[in-house]
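To close the chapter, one final illustration. This time we ask the reader to focus less on the individual chains and more on the assembly as a whole: which components sit near each other, and how the overall shape emerges from the parts.
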Amino acid sequence: MLAIISNVLRGTASRNGARVVVSARTYADFTPQASFDIKKCDVHKLEEGPPLQAVLTREEGLQYYRTMQTMRRMELKSDQLYKQKIIRGFCHLYDGQEACAVGIEAGINLTDHLITAYRAHGYTLTRGGTVREIMAELTGRRGGIAKGKGGSMHMYTKHFYGGNGIVGAQVPLGAGVALACKYLGKNELCVCLYGDGAANQGQIFETYNMASLWKLPCIFICENNKYGMGTSVERAAASTDYFKRGDFIPGLRVDGMDVLCVREATKFAAEHCRSGKGPILMELQTYRYHGHSMSDPGISYRTREEIQEVRSKSDPISMLKDRMLSNNMASVEELKEIDVEVRKEIEDAAQFATTDPEPPLDDLLRGTNPWTKLKSVS
Amino acid sequence: MFYIRVTVRDALNQAMDEELERDERVFLLGEEVAQYDGAYKVSRGLWKKYGDKRIIDTPITEMGFAGIAVGAAMAGLRPICEFMTFNFSMQAIDQVINSAAKTYYMSAGRQSVPIVFRGPNGASAGVAAQHSQCFAAWYGHCPGLKVVSPWSAEDARGLLKSAIRDDNPVVFLENELMYGVPFEMSEESQSKDFLIPIGKAKIERQGNHITVVSHSRMVSLCLDAAAVLAKEGIECEVINMRTIRPLDAEAIETSVMKTNHLITVEGGWPQFGVGGEILARIMEGPAFNYLDAPAVRVTGVDIPMPYAKILEDNSVPQIKDIIFSVKKTLNA
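The assembled structure is written out below.
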């Protein structure tokens, strides 16, 4: 009975366009927090791993849900705009991997540092970028987070060092940021991400060596989405135990589709770094629904069935949603409302991204380049 | 007038020492820079004075440690990254160009990279092909980098200090054969805030008949050639570029408009090189109309550096080559 009344009231509220506090069902009815079993992490050179249970509060759950949904819709919108040729060049989408970005951010502070490769839109968001700025950067407008100069792979915010186009190059950079953290003594750390494809790069092993020698506060994270472009991990790596590849660096293998698992592992890793023990490595087992980039349909090297199976059984957003609903931590309507708000935010951002003007040409004429004296203006 | 004699090596050492003292964000990393006192002893005494935190010995992993240095610069430190020679910078060139040079632009000014990459560049003596390449043209090609090539001890001191204080990535090309060469330095240049601006050339010798533009060790040869030519009544204006990028085209143009003749002298290979750039700039600017003869580049020979002394000696410009080019240009 109570449920029916609340639905009617809510219906009225939306028809009137007003936001009415539905007093028929108060927040006191929801479970404020619950404890969930999470998958055990495989460990390498560690006595113990992260806890097997995670406590999720209602606020946290709603926030993770909103962020992951925003990320998902933002990426899907970008797919649309790309197909309409409003976004051009490289566009590497993150849908499917949301639990990684959101879980990691939940395990660290905004004052910590993070660097990743080119599949970076999700991290730009969690590190403080707005959907508007991100999308306007993808469409190359002056309102973009890099004023249109960077594009998909070169977005930056405070304590977020991109967005890097050269596979593996960001790993030494991340260790350098960690060196600065240790040097400046502010108890900050650096999360340094790379993919399963990059994991075979020599410079990463050079970085493992120095980070370990100098005990840098660096969390190396391998986002293993099973494919480096079109090459499956089995065909690229002699050892696919990416969490062990750090050799002398302790490692964890984590379920990257479960935001709570990622969060607990990140907290565990952060504790390790902050206590001065040096670097640690996490392998997040995750999956991307899209191909490597927008120019890759993503089905020549994997089956549609495989993609569908992951979507139906392991989708990070669905997993969180199910957990919250089955534990009475949120209502279906509430989550739907968040969906509506997210959709609106994305629409607004897309609108901005398609109407904002492009950067001015004068930007090109700066500098003492003599060539510009000869450049035709018409 | 108070002068002291200081070698280029000591000038570099003092500059680094003073900058390390002045700003605690400055630190030095590279192979053998700490406990070995530097492969060429340029960082002698620094580790003893500043310790492990500020003077860091790295493993032989250029790509890794150059990347680490760039990352540290992004996060607020001011690293000096030493390449034992710039030949080894090729292993790390992606970090220098894609991570350091381009980032300020790609981030629309949000992310700066205040790093100095320094080390010996160009030919040495008997070190053969893989250890003798000049990288002035390669790095000079790239927007986002400043590229500096000091000649004298004063250059070394003032330019290195400027490079360390500059918020841009600076490639600082030293020369191994110049390390031990002493120069007289004025009292003024001993000041802790003695800075030479990056991007400004210096006229080392005034002259009216021909402009001779050079950088690094070749400046010595140009001055020697000028001394010989003076005896024959030919007065060369020798310009020490000091900076490769941004190139001080104005200084060269002003000189050419006075002398009407130009040669450039460099140790690097001829094709797509520093001399080629200077000649192109002259053609694009006001000085072209003042040339009485085509400008000429004197460069290293277009081959991988051979080992045998006679071959090596003849693979880089010699004083006689400079004299020959001057006379040919002047039609003397």
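Chain B has a mean pLDDT of 97. The first strand of chain B starts at residue 3 and ends at 7. With these observations in hand, you are ready for the problems at the end of the chapter.
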